[in-house]
Amino acid sequence: MLNNIQWNTDTKVLDANGNEILNDIRNTEITKELNDLTFAENNSKYIDLSKYFYSGSVLTFTDVATDQYGNSYNLQIKIGDIIGSQNGESPIFLVTNPKDGSFEFQVKNSGNFPFTISFIKNGETTSSKVIINQLISDIDNDQYFETTFGNLATVTDSGSKLDVSKNGPTTTITSSANVDFGFNSTPEGTAMMLSDGTEFLFNFYQIDYNETYKGTPQGAADSGMQMQVNLFGNANVVKNYVSSSSVSYHYNVT
Question: What is the C-alpha separation between 156 and 5, in angstroms, rounded?
């Protein structure tokens, strides 16, 4: 089982050829466009990955976790099929690391953020079979996602306002609330997922409710909506959530 999956002080971001990506973009025109100047200044890394946001692109984050034997692991992310803008706007794709140690991705001019994650033990080249958990939080009314993560169990609090459905290996999580676009705090919009395997698929979708765009991911891409997805980070968040009030369990049994 992997422990404390997070962006560590020695973590590097590598492209498919193993080259470190260093293009920090704080105080640039892109951060101005995203109205993100203060946010950028408050994070120790703020890296533009836009040119890597295409199907088949592979990114590696080094030394993000250890197992019970002290072995170190890298996180590999492979980008899937993107719903791009039909207005000629290129996707903007950024990553930063907040104080909670998570991997925070921001996507604009795309209706979705599709990717597969796997963990590779240092010194090896193939994905390792791992047991991991992940807290999914702040799934708002204009978002939903599909994933093969949570194949062991998906846990939602009675106040989560989320609908969880399973079809074979795929779990779909959507908001069941029909008022307000944003949730205020855990447990609203929150689920905890426990998984084992060698790779896990995620596909996060953004929905634009403007009538011009027909309430679709394509509409979100065309209207230039921006989404934020945080992966992993401080394990205490999971511990605090699990110890709260009544929960519902959604199991995949094989």
Answer: 21
**What pLDDT does 200 receive?**
95
Region 222-249: mean pLDDT is 65
CB neighbour class for 184 (10 Å; exposed up to 12, middle 13-18, buried from 19): exposed
pLDDT of 187-228, one tens digit each? 677 888 889 999 999 999 988 766 555 678 898 898 888 888
Encoding tokens for residue 83?
């719903």
Beta bridge partners of 104: 96, 230
Strands of the sheet with 46-48, listed across from one edge: 46-48, 92-96, 103-108, 226-231
Q: Which of 55, 58, 45, 50 is nearest to 19 (CA)?
A: 58
Short-list 98, 101, 183, CA closest to 140 = 183
Average pLDDT over residues 67-76: 94
Output the six-digit token pair for 19. 């080259």
- pTM score, two decimals? 0.85
pLDDT at 251 over 70: no
For residue 24, the 8-state DSSP code is: B
Q: What is the DSSP string of 63-130?
A: EEEE-TT--EEEEEEEE----B-SSSPPPEEEEE--TT--EEEEEESBSEEEEEEEEEETT--SPPPE
CB contact at 8 A, 65 and 2: yes
| CA distances from residue 102 to 43, 134, 164, 219 in whole angstroms, order as listed | 11, 11, 24, 29
pLDDT (mean) for 229-246: 61
